[in-house]
């Protein structure tokens, strides 16, 4: 068994698609109408057959409450691995991404956290 799709609640699918593709560099894999919303998934450009990130609308009250509460508590909604966190941090700063935590060494890893402008804090990590 393996993880094929992981979802991330977003406030606005179009805004999220733009942020995750244009700022972060993920590649759109699926964009399928599903009634009021869409099934939008993205993949890493260097692993396009890998795990898909689903940009899931937070339309359900429980989803919205969960998203708002973890954001308010400063808890990242998900984590992405990077090869060089300082290089990635600088690249994202140049694209206007707002960080809530600069690269910080934590034991054997270095992490940083940014706001995805869609209701989430996202952590990047370098092992």
Automatic annotation (TrEMBL):
VOC domain location is 1-127
Which SUPFAM superfamilies does the entry link to? Glyoxalase/Bleomycin resistance protein/Dihydroxybiphenyl dioxygenase
Cite the InterPro entries for this sequence: Glyas_Bleomycin-R_OHBP_Dase, Glyas_Fos-R_dOase_dom, VOC_core
CDD domains, alphabetically? VOC_like
List residues traversing the bilayer.
Answer: none
What single Pfam family name could you report for this chain, choosing any that match? Glyoxalase
Protein name listed in UniProt: VOC family protein
Species name for this entry? Niallia oryzisoli
What lineage does UniProt assign to this protein's organism?
Bacteria, Bacillati, Bacillota, Bacilli, Bacillales
């Amino acid at each position: 068994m393996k993880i094929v799709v992981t979802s991330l609640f977003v406030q606005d699918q179009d805004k999220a698609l733009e942020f995750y593709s244009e700022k972060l560099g993920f590649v759109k894999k699926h964009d399928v109408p599903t009634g009021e919303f869409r099934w939008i998934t993205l993949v890493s450009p260097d692993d396009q057959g890998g795990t898909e990130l689903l940009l899931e609308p937070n339309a359900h009250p429980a989803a919205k409450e969960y998203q708002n509460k973890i954001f308010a508590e400063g808890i990242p909604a998900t984590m992405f691995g990077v090869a060089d966190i300082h290089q990635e941090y600088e690249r994202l700063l140049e694209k206007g991404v707002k960080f809530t935590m600069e690269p910080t060494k934590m034991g054997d890893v270095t992490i940083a956290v940014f706001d995805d402008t869609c209701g989430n804090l996202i952590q990047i990590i370098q092992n």
